[in-house]
Amino acid sequence: MFQVLVSCRDSADLIEEAIEAMDSARDILPIADVLEIGISRLVMGEKNWKDWRPFVYGGLASIIAELCTFPLDTTKTRLQVQGQKYDEKLARLKYSGMIDALMQISKQEGVKGLYSGISSAILRQATYGTIKFGTYYSLKKAAIDTWATGDLVTINIVCAALAGAISSAIANPTDVVKVRMQVTGNEINTSLFTCFQDVYKYEGVRGLWRGVGPTAQRAAVIAAVELPIYDYTKIKCMNLLGNSVSNHFVSSFVASMGSAVASTPIDVIRTRLMNQKRVRIANKKSSSYIYSGSIDCLVQTIKNEGVLALYKGFIPTWFRMGPWNIIFFITYEQLKQL
Asked: What stretches of residues are Solcar repeats (predicted)?
């Protein structure tokens, strides 16, 4: 199941192949039954506030974490798009690293530059964060109820990968707009609504889902690594630290390291695919795209810039994921106690 999610290249393939995999995996893991039970609980049956708390708390905690760490995300995005040979502006290595990027953006563009695209990021977390965490915990509960004798680690990984892929595919338009606003910074002073309009006007509906394949892959990888590791570490630390803020802090830090290592190469590909249409229009190139897809982007990046280019922006990714996860999980755990 996880392999299917990682290999798909667009939203249509994602949904179609996931359904086929669900049918073929019934004897191993009744995932279709799990989805059916989870959805029926949330939509048709149990009108219980507790069923919706993971969604509400997940969305709120995601927005708070995003606001606190967004400058690092902008830094990561700028580092990931630089060094591409096809564009004179982006071909130049403007930033030598995370600290240099933070200093240059702050000096040249101010706080506004560091928070370019924050409106789209908040909208993204309101959809992606809400759906991902709520779906994960709902599916996990349904899976345990349906498959009580199953391997808990496998259940966690499959449920997390599904939740990450589904939520990211739905929220992809907000991610496209966020990336483009972060790359341009203050050069083009456009609002969230104007940016959405421009993408739709010049690229159509498909433009809003540009890069959905690697976006879903990245989200599936992050969720499949991050959420199970957090849950596992939290349980292991329970005897020593209890259900405390210290436990949540340690578990969040461990989870962020694993997800950063696993997801950065996919994130580089995703960012470049999302930004390529804007670059093509700006330079008035031919109608063909710079990259034909995820594999082509991967091959060209390695060919032109080397394998290490896949880990561009790793430091700000990790530095952002650490505080992001710590803020998120501590906020989430505190909301659960209300």
From this structure: 53-142, 151-236, 243-338
Q: What sign does the dihedral 201-282-172-188 (CA atoms) show? A: negative
Residue type, 283: N
Q: Quick check: is 295 in a domain?
A: no
DSSP 127: I
Q: What is the pLDDT of residue 91?
A: 65
Query: Long-range contacts: 27-32, Cβ < 8 Å, 24+?
Result: 29/1, 29/143, 29/147, 29/150, 29/154, 29/155, 29/158, 30/146, 30/147, 31/1, 31/143, 31/158, 31/162
Indicate whether 157 belongs to any domain: no
Query: How far is CA 286 from each of CA 41, 85, 290, 296, rounded to the nearest angstrom?
Result: 50, 16, 9, 18
CA distances from 317 to 73, 75, 229, 278 (A): 7, 9, 18, 23
Contact 247, 238 (CB under 8 A): yes
Q: What's the rounded mean pLDDT across residues 326-334?
A: 89
Average pLDDT over residues 17-37: 45
pLDDT per residue as tens digits for the range 87-105? 666 667 788 888 898 999 9
DSSP string, 21-55: HHHHTTTT--HHHHHHHHHIIIIIS---HHHHHHH
Residue with tokens 């004179």: 88
Residue 258 lies in a domain: no
Residue 36 belongs to a domain: yes
Domain count for the chain: 1
Whether pTM > 0.85 for this model: the answer is no
> Tokens at residue 237, please?
């630390």
User: What span, in angstroms and rounded, lies between the C-alpha atoms of 192 and 204?
Assistant: 17
